[in-house]
Design goal:
transmembrane helix; Immunoglobulin-like; rod-shaped; signal; six-stranded mixed sheet; transmembrane; immunoglobulin domain; 33 strands; alpha+beta; binds 2-acetamido-2-deoxy-beta-D-glucopyranose; single chain
Length: about 450
């Protein structure tokens, strides 16, 4: 009774499997194996039928990557025949049909094919065939990679290339990866990799390549072997030159400061190695180096005067420089303390204003006089323009650099009709001297003509 009950149970399960949608009598948990050389590998197979109730017969065969096929094991429920060549290396053990490869080597790579025939006892004549293929690779684990850089020292941006190499002593089918500051390197048109990525050429090197590099070697059986960290130092810059001050009022490139206020200017630029800085003043007509270093100290009392300054940053190694120019304007910014200071300086301001007013007056009157003359129907020729002529008529000669020297007797010569241009040549003037109906007027220029107006007027 008990035996029949068990049999019924078996048959039910067999029938259930036979009629089931995903019916399979064997199951292979892993269809791809990454074996380690020297280690054993079990090609595991689960049987899903009661071995007591069936007859089985099958083979394990091996197909190499080259295509050579070898039958390794032929088995039935009672007997196993292992190929003599593989006797020491293969272990096939009943009752399940798993195959154990005892010591993997490179030759064991390839496809392992299991072909299994199953015949159920109560269903004589019905043979079910099951086939599975398991792929096996055999690899040597990766040793710690060794990273190398060429050139080994620091490099100059845009002028050098850097070659990184990563090598492993042991390991098969190694895949390399590169990290900078612990972040995987993304693609770049300046990066050139060898096929396996063991070599990375950066050409040309840029500022952003600066950092700490490491390479990672992996294969199917070992993950992420990191090399030591190697620093890449790139000389670059200067970039982003800036002049800043926490004093004064800034409007674009113009700093307005209170008179007498002590102001510090700070010059900054991104550079490696650090820049050397010089400060240049352009206020006194010629440029002049006034300070070295990133800081400039300025105190100015000269009101309403714009002074030009420049900070120049120079990178010793890259041989590049950058400049930033700014204007310093001294004016009262209106804070109480400064206003007091300004009134104390009022005495020095009022004479300046008086001089400016005087100058404007003289310019105006001289312009008026000049305009009246040029509106005369006859052409007016100012003999002072023509040096050889003026030499004959004037006792003094002037370079017009300093108008205070220009006092003396001036002669205006008016020629009726004939002249085409007021700027006559010496020769034409000499010819004209013979003309009788020429009118001349003599002016006496007195000494008190101020510098600027006479200078501009004569030019
Ligand atoms: C098959 O048998 C081997 C022993 O020969 C055992 O180590 C393994 O776990 C078994 N596999 C399954 C799937 O039962
Ligand atoms: C054998 O299988 C047949 C169906 O094919 C079934 O009717 C019979 O009960 C089974 N025999 C036993 C002993 O389970
Ligand atoms: C850097 O590599 C480029 C090609 O990518 C080459 O033309 C150049 O000469 C190399 N420069 C140096 C300094 O080796
Ligand atoms: C610039 O180079 C000179 C010599 O070449 C060196 O004496 C000086 O210290 C360097 N300056 C900086 C800021 O690196
Ligand atoms: C100022 O510069 C001008 C030309 O740029 C020159 O003619 C003049 O002599 C200079 N003056 C001084 C005081 O250097």
């Amino acid at each position: 009774m008990e035996a029949t009950g068990r049999t019924v149970l078996y048959v039910c399960s067999v029938l259930g499997i036979l009629t089931g949608v995903n019916s399979e009598f064997i199951h292979v948990p892993t269809l791809r194996h990454h074996g380690i050389e020297g280690k054993s590998l079990l090609l595991s197979v689960e049987t899903r039928f009661p071995l007591d109730e069936v007859e089985i017969q099958g083979t394990w065969s091996h197909t190499r990557p080259s295509g050579t096929r070898t039958t390794l094991v032929t088995f039935t429920k009672d007997a196993t025949i292992t190929d003599m060549m593989y006797r020491n290396n293969l272990l096939f053990r009943e009752p399940n049909v798993s195959l154990l490869i005892q010591k993997l080597n490179q030759d064991d790579e390839g496809d392992y094919h299991l072909s299994l025939n199953i015949e159920f006892h109560n269903k004589t004549g019905l043979v079910i065939k099951e086939e599975r293929t398991v792929h096996v690779t055999v690899d040597v684990p990766v040793s710690t990679p060794v990273i190398d850089k060429n050139p080994s020292n620091a490099v100059v941006e845009d002028k050098a290339n850097v070659t990184w190499t990563c090598s492993v002593e042991r390991g098969t089918r190694v895949v390399f990866q590169w990290l900078r500051d612990n972040v995987a390197l993304g693609p770049s048109e300046r990066y050139y990799y060898s096929q396996d990525k063991s070599t990375l050429l950066i050409s040309p090197v840029r500022k952003e390549d600066k950092g700490t590099y490491c390479c990672v070697a992996s294969n199917a059986v070992s993950w992420g072997q990191h090399s030591r960290l190697v620093e890449l130092n790139v000389y670059y810059g200067p970039y982003n030159l800036e002049v800043n001050s926490d004093h004064g009022l800034r409007t674009g490139e113009v700093f307005t400061i209170n008179p007498g206020e002590l102001v510090y200017f700070e010059c900054q630029a991104d550079s490696n190695p650090p820049n050397s800085y010089i400060w240049i003043s352009k206020s006194r007509n010629s440029t002049q180096v006034i300070n070295e270093g990133p800081r400039l100290e300025v105190r100015s009392y000269r009101l309403a005067q714009a002074e030009e300054y420049m900070c120049r940053a120079f990178n010793n190694v890259t041989q590049k420089q950058d400049e930033a120019q700014f204007t310093l304007l001294v004016a009262s910014l209106g804070t109480g303390k400064e206003r007091e200071k300004q009134t104390a300086e009022g005495s020095s301001v009022s004479p300046l204003a008086a001089i400016i007013v005087c100058c404007l007056f003289v310019i105006g009157s001289m312009l008026l006089f000049f305009l009246r003359r040029s509106c005369h129907p006859k052409r007016v020729l100012m003999s002072i323009y023509n040096r050889p002529l003026s030499e004959q008529k004037r006792p003094h000669r002037s370079g017009h650099m300093d108008a205070t020297e220009d006092f003396g007797i001036y002669e205006f010569v008016s020629i009726p009709g004939k002249m085409e241009s007021a700027q006559a040549s010496c020769r034409s003037l000499a010819r004209l001297e013979s003309v009788q109906d020429m009118h001349t007027t003599i002016y006496d220029v007195i000494r008190h003509v101020p510098e600027t107006p006479s200078h501009s007027l004569l030019k």
